[in-house]
Design brief:
Elements: E1 6-8, E2 15-17, H1 29-35, E3 38-39, E4 52-56, E5 60-64, E6 72-77, E7 80-81, E8 89-93, E9 102-111, E10 119-128, E11 136-142, E12 150-151, H2 155-164, E13 171-176, H3 179-184, E14 195-196, E15 203-210, E16 214-226, E17 235-240, E18 247-250, E19 260-264, E20 272-275, E21 279-287, E22 293-303, E23 308-313, E24 319-325, E25 333-337, E26 348-352, E27 355-363, E28 369-376, E29 378-379, E30 382-383, E31 396-397, E32 408-412, E33 418-423, E34 432-433, E35 436-437, E36 441-448, E37 454-461
Parallel strand pairs: 3-10, 4-10, 11-16, 17-22, 30-37
Antiparallel strand pairs: 1-2, 5-8, 6-7, 6-9, 9-10, 12-14, 13-15, 15-16, 18-20, 19-21, 21-22, 23-24, 24-26, 25-27, 27-28, 29-31, 32-33, 32-36, 34-35, 36-37
Length: 463
């Protein structure tokens, strides 16, 4: 459109006057491609249009489309226009120094220059090199010579993938009992993952396909080995953390040691190993020079002697002790008091009288017993200071015979007068004040425990 074009306003449509001339409107190329018809530049089949092409042991490939007079042909390689290529065909050649697989994408745009959207053809080419597998061996294992050998032919995929460094998903195969069947593609074996060699054939044949393009017929020799004549049963063992020497894992069997090979999950190759941490340890045992191995798993469970704390709930003559194991304690524990017998699963002891108790915590996995001495505080409800040697002094009970306790006791009369102040290391209150006997009555106490807790209450003096 130029300066001579007349713009004519309209109440319904805004249009452009062309002054008797014609023009055309087009879409940008990236929009055109959405509406462009797809064409086949790989082969002549325009009903089924392939875009992916896998090639094997090829160094060139011809891409083409029909030649049409007046049409413009634009080729692109990996998105870049090939300015020197303007024909309806293109011979793709891989570089001399190319590494396999060599991948490249070509696009052809055919424009008939008639105002219609161009035709688009795309081909993604992958040039592969045949791996040349050659003949292979497949080993199966059996318990005794009387057993029928059973093979899983899909194991050959993993074997080839590992040996030739090819992704497993790129390998497939069809298996045959004879070479003629493999060549002619007849009578394939159907039970490829559970082939029972009842006839005793020594080999089979397989048409292997790799990269969806490379095909090769190979012979697979069928070998059979016996497992070692040893009994291996999985074991669970306890490793006590207090044992700095670790724990011995022994996989030796009844066979002579010099006829067997061992391979542990740790990489060690001896019949016995020592470990110092918990976990699962697996060992494969086979005859020397053979593949068939028996496996055994040792499950090592770590445990230790319990580290624990406690809480004491005091309530007159009915008290309790709660044992609290530390998070560093790994085992399963059971508990008892006074003597290391008659253990219980519960960590709580109830209905205890005031006094000193020996508490035992035993690891059920066998790593030993830990113990602590615990005092349950008792406050006398009455005392009789009459000189008969029984309850002559008011004191608290359940104190440990150590210097770690620091308890202050104070005694008051009903009017709040302080009559006596002493500690747990003292004898107690004998019922006197300034050398005079106090009368029968109720008296009040204030006790400051070692942790700062204050206990208050009353007791009775009887004469």
């Amino acid at each position: 459109m130029g300066p001579d074009i007349e713009y004519i306003p309209n109440t319904n449509l805004n249009s452009i006057g062309l002054g008797g001339r014609s023009t055309s409107f087009g879409l940008p190329p990236f929009i055109q491609s959405l509406f462009s018809e797809r064409i086949n530049i790989v082969n002549d089949d325009q009903d089924n249009i392939p875009t992916e092409v896998n090639l094997c042991d090829e160094t060139e490939f011809l891409l083409s489309y029909n030649t049409s007079p007046g049409a413009t042909y634009t080729w692109k390689k990996d998105g870049e226009i090939l300015s020197d290529e303007n024909g309806s065909s293109l011979m793709v050649e891989i570089p001399v120094d190319a590494e396999y697989p060599y991948e490249v994408t070509y696009q052809l745009e055919v424009n008939f220059n008639d105002g219609e959207c161009p035709l688009i053809g795309i081909a993604r080419l992958t040039f592969n090199q045949s791996p040349n597998y050659g003949n292979q061996e497949l080993v199966t294992c059996r318990e005794t010579t009387e057993d029928t050998p059973v093979y899983d032919f899909t194991d050959i995929y993993t074997q080839l993938s590992d040996a030739f460094d090819i992704p497993l998903e790129e390998i497939s195969g069809i298996f045959y009992e004879t070479e003629d069947d493999a060549i002619n593609g007849e009578n394939p074996i159907t039970e490829i993952s559970n082939f029972q060699n009842t006839t005793g054939i020594s080999s089979i044949y397989a048409e292997m396909e790799t990269f969806q393009s490379c095909k090769e017929i190979i012979e697979i020799n069928l070998l059979v080995e016996e497992f070692p004549d040893i009994f291996l049963e999985d074991e669970s063992l306890i490793l006590c953390q207090e044992n700095s020497d670790g724990i011995l894992l022994d996989a030796s069997g009844s066979e002579e040691e010099n006829t067997l090979e061992y391979l542990w999950s740790t990489g060690e190759t001896s019949a016995k190993i020592t470990v110092n941490t918990g976990g699962e340890y697996t060992v494969d045992v086979s005859f020397q020079g053979f593949e068939c191995a028996l496996s055994k798993t040792f499950t090592v469970i770590e445990s230790n002697i319990a580290s624990f704390d406690f809480e004491v709930e005091s309530s007159g003559n009915s008290n309790s002790i709660q044992i609290i194991t530390d998070s560093s304690s790994l085992g399963e524990y059971e508990f008892t008091i006074n003597e290391p017998v008659n253990f219980q699963d519960s960590s709580t002891f109830e209905n205890l009288s005031p006094g000193v108790y020996q508490v035992y915590v035993r690891d059920q996995l066998g790593c030993g017993i830990s113990e602590k001495t615990i005092g349950v505080l008792g406050i006398m409800e009455f005392f009789t200071p009459n000189g008969d040697g029984i309850n002559d002094v008011w004191q608290i009970s359940g104190l440990l015979q150590t210097n770690e306790e620091d308890i202050l006791l104070q005694v008051y009369d009903r009017y709040g007068k302080l009559l006596s102040s002493f500690t747990n290391r003292d004898r107690g209150w004998d019922g006197t004040y300034n050398g005079k006997n106090m009368p029968t009555d109720d008296y009040w106490y204030r006790i400051r425990l070692t942790d700062g807790t204050i206990e208050t209450g009353s007791f009775t003096l009887k004469r």
